[in-house]
Structure formats: C-alpha cells, structure tokens
Fold this protein.
Amino acid sequence: MDKFEAAYRFVAKWEGGLSDDPADRGGITHWGVSIEFLRDCARIDSSRCLHLGIEEPITRETIKALTQEQARALFRWRFWDVPGFERYGAPLAVTLCDCSVNHGVKRAILLAQKAFNYVCPDQGYWLIVDGIQGPKTRAALPTVNPVALSLAIISARRDFYRAIVKSNASQKVFLKGWLNRADDLEKYVGNLELSS
C-alpha cells in the first residue's frame, strides 16, 4: 500500500458518512468534505472540480450527493499533493495528512514545527512555529524519527483540541471523539512503522 492510501484508509475511517450537526463549526460534511472546503476547492480550481463531476454552485445538495471517490480525490489534491507530504516517511506523512483534513494544512505544519522543537531541543536550531512549510521545515522534518515526531504531533494535537474546548464550551461535545481519533492515529502510525 502506498503512503497516500495508508493515509486515506485512516482518514476515511474517521470521516465517513454524512454529518449535519448544528454544533459543528464545519457545517454539513460528507466523507469529511465540508461545504466551505468544497467551495474553496471550486474557487481554487473549478475545472478540476468539474472534472471530478462536482458542479457549481456548491450547495447542501452538492455535499449530500458527494461520493467517497470524489472526497478521496479532493483530499489527495489538497492534503497530499499540494503540501508534498509524499516526501516524508509514512508515519509522519499519514499524521500530517490526517491533521490537514481535520485542521487544515497550515495547522498541521504548525503542529509539526512545534513537535520538532520539542523532540529535537539539541538540534542546534529551532523551527519558527508559523505553519509555513518553507525550506527549513522541509529539510528538518525528515531528520527526525518519523514515529517519534508523529507521536509528538499527536500530543500537540490533543492540546489543541483541549484549547478549542477551553475557548468555546459548545465544542466540548466533540472532545471525546477528537481524543479517540488522536489515540487511534497513535496506534495506526506505530503499526505503519512496524510493517514498513
């Protein structure tokens, strides 16, 4: 199984089906694709969306009709190919992809930079925690054991989930599920390392 397939297998487990919870800030979501994300995809490259069979305007009905294959193609484009996660070892690439689906690419990179600084305090330099995957970040991340870095990212992600709830109590209803996802990802990336 290639790295993206390993990433998508995990993502699909947690992002399957249609969700329209009024408390969910992402709004109506199907296969992990929210209406705002899909509208953003159409703004960036409407011809790509049209090629996938997704026509504008993007409405609630568009989300309801979305197929898993369309979602998979959108995720490969926006959360794998564009940020170039293929360059990293499988555990790190899978972790970054799942974080990107859940929080956006910028937040995923920010968590990775924070984790790198935690795991490698004696590296001789620190990464600026800005969420930008510049040359220093791209060069630094592969120098660390990908499982160790992934586990540090997942730990930082748990802190981020708790901070969301602390700043907005209405999101507490989602905390247990978010933490369960983080726990599952921790096991998943550990097994990836064992099987590679």
